[in-house]
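A student in our group prepared the protein record below, which I am reviewing. Here is the record exactly as it was handed to me.
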Amino acid sequence: MKHLNGLTSIATAANKVAATSGFVALLLFLTCCHPRSEILEPNLSFCPDPCLVRSLPPPAFSPITESEKRGEWVKEFYIGNQFAKEFDFYRAITSYKRAYLLLPKREFDRRQQIQFLIAKSYYLGCKYCDVVETFEGTELFDIDGSFPAYNELLLMLYDSYKQTRQCKKQAAVLQIIQSEDPLKANQFQLGETIEQGNLSCLIPLSQETSSEAAVSQFHSCYCQNARSVKTAQTLNALLPGAGYFYVGQKKTALTSFLINAAFIATTWHFIDEGNWGAAGISGSLELGWYLGGINGAGLAAKEYNETLYNRLGKRVMVEERLFLIFYFETSF
């Protein structure tokens, strides 16, 4: 009987160990499968150089006539232009709005011109909601291809609808652009694909543009130098800190290794002394550090990849002039 009781105790202990191991494995699996650890989320932004905008010619609106110069609105209009050229968009918009209020309602073309300059100031100031509101709530909504700055307005609307996540309206504007200039529309889509980090669509889409060679080189360079999230997690699971070392974070790797080693040594010391309560506490803390380290290594690899992608992506978009600001044809 004693022999059977001993076997039963061993079997019970083995089952507990197996259950604990299964629970730890489940935690390890859930930690390694962080929902966003392998999703590339680039942040490609480009602030236009004021010199680039100033170097462009003024819009092809009809020049101010001698009779118009006597109007009260002209002074505010000129002040707004000067502020806009200095990239002081807050004051520029204020002056343009004053000019708009002073302008007679019968001057429909001038009112469209001023609203366009207001929208452009909002756009260059990255106020995309205000661009949409200005277009949809003013005389700009009624423009057609005869408007002197029609193409630029389409550019601003396309990007503003994209930034404000109004996908249907963005697609409608893109369709208009595509009907007039398919090559330009393809360039826009290529730039948007790079901004989204959609690597699977990058090469096929670039084949329809003049940027195929540059985009192919960018894609190849990124893939060769990117770090695998799963590899970082696996290395950190095998040896705490190894995953961080893999992505180049040497100080974090050393810290992770020392902390895990300290908790493991402490837990072992308590077990050796038979202090199971303290061993359980320190072991639980070590499990947290261990699983957190695996997850952290994966996120570190993700951050490394995004930094690399942002650097290479911004360079290719500037060199190939894929940012929409490069398609602007006029200044203020």
